Structure formats: C-alpha cells, structure tokens
C-alpha cells in the first residue's frame, strides 16, 4: 500500500471513504496487505506539515497503523541499492523506486495507490482501493 491511501484517511481527503472500505477488507482478512516503514515515515512527515493538529494527527496515525493487520516491510540495503536502476528504467523518483524495489524483492505484484506514475512500471500492477 502506498502512502496516499493512508493519507486520504488521515487527512480526510476526497477519496477517504473508498480507502476506509479497503481498510475494512484488510481488517476482515480478505486482503493480505503490505507497506514499508518508509511509507509510514512519509505519512508522518506529511501529517506534520499538512495538519493544523499535527502532533495529535501523527499519534492517531500510529495508533491506526498499529491496529491494522498489515505487514510492514523494512527495505534492506540490497533493495535500496537497486532503487536507482528502477528510477532510471521507469523514470521514477526515489520513493517510488523504493516501493518497486521492495515489491520485487518480496514478490508483491499489486500496488494499491492513486499514483499513476506506477502505471508505466510493467513488472507490477497498480490498483485503486475501489477495484
């Protein structure tokens, strides 16, 4: 799962309801979900800068993440070293390249994200929460 799914919920943005429904699927064990520690840090940084109640929102986000039945991947140095190759091959920024690297290394084929930059990556499939 990409950061934008979590941030839709935490910041109560336009598509937060479909993201909440997707989270319900995870909580009911219908979907096995993964994210990375980097995605969690990214969300915390975004909450720090985008929310007026930043500390409160950051604490709530950590409680929320902890309540999910989600596997948190910690990228290895090997995965990080492969990021630049994905950046060059698919014209991605570092954080998207990192997502691809840990997906490949962990044999994860589907990414839940609103980021259409992932559509140009032919080794994974991007899906939105409502799909």
Give the topology, please.
Elements lengths: L2 H8 L5 H12 L5 E4 H14 L3 H14 L2 E4 L3 H5 L1 H8 L3 H12 L4 E3 L12 E3 L4
Parallel strand pairs: 1-2, 3-4
Q: What is the end-to-end distance?
A: 14 Å
Question: Any idea what the CATH architecture is?
Answer: 3-Layer(aba) Sandwich
Please give the count of helices.
7
How many DSSP E strands?
4
Number of domains: 1
Nearest-integer average pLDDT: 94
Question: How much helical structure, as a percent, in the residues?
Answer: 55-70%
Strand order of the largest sheet: 1-2
Summarize the biggest pleated sheet: 2 strands, parallel
CATH topology: Rossmann fold
List low-pLDDT spans: none
Describe the structure.
- By secondary structure, the chain is mostly helical.
- It has a single domain (3-127), classed as 5'-nuclease (Rossmann fold, 3-Layer(aba) Sandwich).
- Helix content is 56%, strand content 11%.
- It is built from seven helices and four strands, in the order ααβααβαααββ.
- Strands 1-2 form a two-stranded parallel sheet. Strands 3-4 form a two-stranded parallel sheet.
- The chain starts with a helix and ends with a strand.
Write a concise synopsis of the structure shown.
The protein has 131 residues and is mainly alpha-helical. 56% of the residues lie in helices and 11% in strands. The chain has a two-stranded parallel ribbon. It has a two-stranded parallel ribbon with strand order 3-4.
């Amino acid at each position: 799962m990409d950061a934008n799914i979590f941030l839709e919920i935490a910041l109560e943005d336009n598509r937060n309801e479909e993201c909440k429904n997707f989270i319900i699927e995870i909580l009911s064990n219908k979907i096995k979900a993964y994210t990375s520690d980097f995605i969690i840090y990214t969300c915390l940084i975004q909450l720090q800068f985008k929310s007026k109640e930043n500390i409160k929102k950051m604490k709530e986000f950590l409680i929320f993440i902890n309540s999910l039945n989600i596997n948190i991947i910690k990228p290895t140095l090997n995965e990080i070293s492969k990021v630049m190759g994905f950046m060059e091959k698919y014209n991605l920024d570092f954080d998207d390249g990192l997502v691809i690297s840990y997906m490949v290394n962990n044999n994860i084929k589907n990414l839940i994200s609103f980021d259409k930059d992932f559509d140009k990556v032919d080794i994974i499939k991007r899906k939105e929460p409502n799909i």
